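INTERNAL AUDIT FORM
Audit reference: QA-55
Scope: verify that the stored structure record matches its stored sequence.
Auditor: D.O.
Record contents follow.
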Amino acid sequence: MNSTAVILVLEDERAQILSLRAQLKGLGTLAEFSDPEPALAYAREHPCDAAIVDIGMPRASMDGLEFLRAIRQFDRDLAIIIRTGNDSDQIADGAIELRAIKRAVKSKTTLAELRRSTQEAIDETRQRRAAARSAAAAAFTRSQLAEALGTYDLRQAAADLQRGLVQSLRNRLTALSALASLLQTDASQTKNQQFTEHAAKSGALVSHLLETVNAFLDGPFGDNRSAANAGVNDSLRALRQYFRGAERWAAEGKRLKVRDLLSDTLVESGPLELLNGLRHLVEYLLLHAAAGTEVAVTASVLLAPEPLGRTLAQAQIVLDGEAIALAKPYVALRASATIPGLPLIQVRDAFSHEGADARTGNLMVLIRALVEARGAVLLDGSASGAISVTALLPVAF
């Protein structure tokens, strides 16, 4: 973002405002206030990129910490630097609780330090706001997808919860980082050896914690590229939960039975794409089944190349089989039911036609998920009406 930054300054001494105006020249536009009430009103109406707040304002209606508490009621993303005239630990504790990122002691903070801290605050605010906008956009996209599919399933809700938890963890890391920074700043200004050692040890611990937790959040649990891999058991658990509340099928005496893997395995498919594909497959079978029919979904691992090759060779119909790499292990997700009068060729054709109603099972949803994951579909049937559809997905490493 290249637009001019807006820096809110709350300071009850005119001389200090003039000093800050000179010290921060070139970093952005200053919105200067000596009274907290107008400053709050401005912050509500105008998104700011950073705030510099004086803690001790004896002539004002509230002090700096009360101002921070008020601003956090409507703005959780604004990065705030507090300015104090002393080194009180109580002030530092209160500021950290309210997610202030830096403390600048007026008599001890250099011009270079203040400018660097202000630029860091601007950058952090913009990163937080960008993350919030991305989360809002993702939520809107998911809601539009859910509307198009005719449902908002539990897996989507779980994905929202996971993203919220990840964002909360990242925010707490910011607070921990700020606390370590305050401790180290205080340590550099004291001759207390024990406190200096404590601050250094705390800084090292926080640094290690940041590295470890960020590695965790950037892994399969988090929101980076590897998060696109779906857990088989997680997907089947969500599928089971979804159909447990599907009143339409329960009223017809139709039911779903799911058997998952002994230990969860990741496959190269997006979690929501895989779940929606399996959901449409089960609904397709339930739609064509007679009242009282059970649809069974089972998961198994096919090691390469013998069991995988044998499974492919024995299948009556193979869709997208050319995508299969026999050197890799695959997970087989098999949905089966006894549906007399449903020709296997009709099931095959359903994979090439868009369904008009999401509740009737649109098998194109599953085939698209498999194409993205370089998987395949196997179709088998018998004279007695037994139908099975197997989705093959490569194991993710």
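Auditor finding: record pair retrieved intact. The first helix runs from residue 14 to 23.
Action required: none
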